[in-house]
Structures are given as C-alpha cells and as structure tokens.
Amino acid sequence: MNPGRLSKLYPAFHRMQDLCFFDDLECHFQSHPQYACLRQYLDLPSFHLRFPDNRVLYTRLLDTLLDILDIAHTNSSCYKELSPLYQLVDKIDPYYFTEGHISQEIIKCYTLESQQQKQLLRFATTFFHTIRQFSPFVEVSGQQKVLAWDAWYAVFPRGYAWEVVRVLQDLGIGVAASWHGARAWSRFTHGKLIELENIHLDWHSRCETWGKREKQPVVYPDLLAHAFANQLSHLGINGFCGDTPNCYECPLASSCNWNQGFDQNEEKVLITESDLEAIPIAIQKQYIDDIPISALIAWVFSLEGADAKVIEEKFSQKNSLRLMDQKTVYELSQLLPHVPYFGEKMKALLEVCKRYSEDTLIPGDQFSCSKDIFAHFRFRLRDLKQELFILVLLDNKHQYLTDVLITKGTLNKSLVHPREVYSTAIENRAAAIVCVHNHPSGDPKASTDDIQITHRLKEVGTVVGIPLLDHIIIGNDRYFSLADQGLL
Ligand code: SF4
Questions:
Q1: Disulfide: which of 17, 85, 97, 176 matches 149 by Cβ 3.0-4.6 Å?
Q2: Predicted structure pTM score
Q3: Of 55 and 102, the one with more pLDDT
C-alpha cells in the first residue's frame, strides 16, 4: 500500500459524500467492504492515461461530428472530397483561422450539398473555435491529464454527447462525465439507476461543485467513479461495478444498496412476459428465481407480444422443459416458424440445461457402483422414445475409458448380439464392460429378455476374459441394476 496515495484518495472519497449522490457513502465508507474498495484503488497504478497526439484526437472528433451530421461514415478521413476539411486539423492556429477561412475550405468539399455545407460550417466553426479557446486538456496532478469537459461538450449537440465520450474512451482518454461512473455510484449508493438523458448535466454539476470547493479539477471525483465502474480496465485499473454488475462476486455486495435492495420493505415484483424490460434488472438484483421460465425464454430470444404469449402457453405446464426436449428441432421451430433458427436455438438451450445437471464420467474415473453409471446416462436416456443399447468400456482397474452406442431400436435377442458387444470391447482394448439400455415406457424393471441376454453376455465375457460387471436399465429417472438385484 502506498501511504502517499492513501492521503490523496481518502479526502477524495471522504468529500464525495457531500454530494447528493454520496449521502450514504459515509456509513459504507467506514465499513470493511468499502475500505476494501479503497484499498483496491490504492493498489492501482495512478490514473495514468494514454494520449493520442492532437492530430489523431481532432481527426477522430471530426469523424464523429461528420458522422453525426450524416455527411460521412467511419474512417471518413479517407474520403478525398473531404480532405480540405481534414487539412484544417493540421493547421489549427489560434490566430490564423476565421470563419471565412473555414468556409473557403468547406466549399472545396465539392460533393456536399449546400445545406450540408451550411450545417458543417456552423459546427466546424464552433469546433475549431472551441479547440483554440480551451486547452483540450486539464491537469489532474502532475503528468495526469484528461480532456476538459467543456472542450467537447460545447461542440457536440446534446444527445450526442455520449457518443463523443465513447470515441474518447476508445482513444484511452478519461473523460469527465462518465455515465458509467455516475450509474455505478447511483446504483451503489441509492440502489437504482439514474436516467441517461439527465446524467451528464446532473453528474457534471455535482462533480464541478465538489471540484470548486476542493480546488480540484472537475474530473477528479468523476475519475474515481469511472475507475469504480471498471471503465479503466484497459489501463490495468480494475473496478468493481461494471456496466453489467457481477454482484455475485463483488466484495462490496453486503453494503451495496443495489444488491441489498434499497428499500428493504420493497416487495419483489412478479415478472411476467409483459415486463421483459425488467428482467435484466431482476437478474442483476438476484431475483432470477422469481422469473417464470417462459419470461426468461422470451427475454433470451427477444420475443414480445404474441410470440411471448406462445412461449408462455407452451412453457407454463409442469415439466415443460422436459416435454419440449422430446420434440424434434422441426417441431420446436413450428412453435414460432417466423423466428429464424428458433427450433435450433431452443434445442441448443435445452441441451445446455440438460448438461448442466449431468454428472458425467470422464476417462480415468473409477467405476465403483451402478449409481455412477446411472448419473452418467440419466439425462441422456431418461426421456428417449427409442431404445438405445450402450456399452461402457473400462480398463483393468475398472476405470472409465469411453462408451459406445451398439444399437438403436427395440431391444431383443437378435438386435443385441454378444458378437457386436465383444468385438467393440476387444477393438477398444477394454478389460471389463458394463451394458446400459433404456426403457422408453419409463419402467426400468428388467424383462425376461433383458435377463436372458444378460446371461448370454456374461457367458461370452467369461470365455473371452472381459467380464460383464453390470447391466443397467434406465427409465424415467430411475434405474435397475441386474448386478445389484443378484441377477447377474
Ligand atoms: S454489489 Fe453489484 S451493484 Fe453493488 S457495487 Fe457490487 S457489482 Fe455493483
């Protein structure tokens, strides 16, 4: 820990509580997690920002301006007809350019319509005037600088301000008025988000008030919030509360009003399909358990209105996910035929659900009992409408090697022949085997045929020296082990 940095940062945090946004900071600050937050900052390198040279910066700002005016798109500096405009950037001199000079250059941009030229003249004049009137950077301390708020805010029309912020952030420039920082602090201290349209004015004025009183640049509290919001990670400064907060792992969770629920008496809202917009908030606030499956699916697939209604109907029954999993991709796609790849994506989602619950064996795992095999195949086989006969191959220590599908269809003596089973076992150099099959009826109890074929397999296994350790039948989340039942 660097005590020098502590002395610089503590007053900064301490004073931030004076701002309306930080009313609640005092109590959090004194508590351990908040202190951890501060320590995290202390371990950071100082706010060391990378600056592009002025030409790169001005060119990118001009690109953005032209894009906003719908005059040119990305990388417009390559547009030959606009080159006079970009040459102005090279020639910026506080005493040299007048509006007339700019106008002369804009007229040379021959592909622009006169209306566009007028518009551009107005903005370009403000742009160059602003650049020469303000120093685009202000000092934070020593070598650390950030772009002055006014230098860009005066140029770009309100509403586009955030776009410009993004451009500057791409260039690695810390910018006062970070909406990420404002949002993160608001979430942390007040347990709610503030409206984006109003953030820039509100937040800036608060930072400015604080800055004036403390004779600190306006950007300083903003930078702290910016770091807290994990917006300086490209500089190796890791904050806690990103744009999508990871509350599950956040060390501040216990003192965060967002995570705790600002109003402890606030009732959890039951989210339905019509509240799709509320779902991300509910997930962040860890109310995910309360969200119906159908609403989650509708949100993941961006479904609204009638489409969301279809999903609500289909997924409101008991065991709906399992029922849906029994459908083919085509049948699933017919639920919402106009949604591209709905069947495929739904199938993929269901597969993820299934695999999450699986407790599968991997090569080298010791086979110890029938339960291991059941856990391995449980979700794969339990709802199948078709019988599968699978061979589990083990090594001489009875460790799992792999499993191989032997037959599909109705199990009978002719379908599973010991020759197929043991040729596969020999081919894979197995030292022992376990057979597995499913009963689509759901009743896992062994039939007479099952018992007979097991005996034949066992006899052949004894002859070839690859013992059959068990034959397990799976049906509707239950299993039947012939070894456990003394039938082997
Ligand atoms: S608990 Fe969540 S919302 Fe609160 S500070 Fe941490 S990440 Fe941000």
A1: 176
A2: 0.45
A3: 102
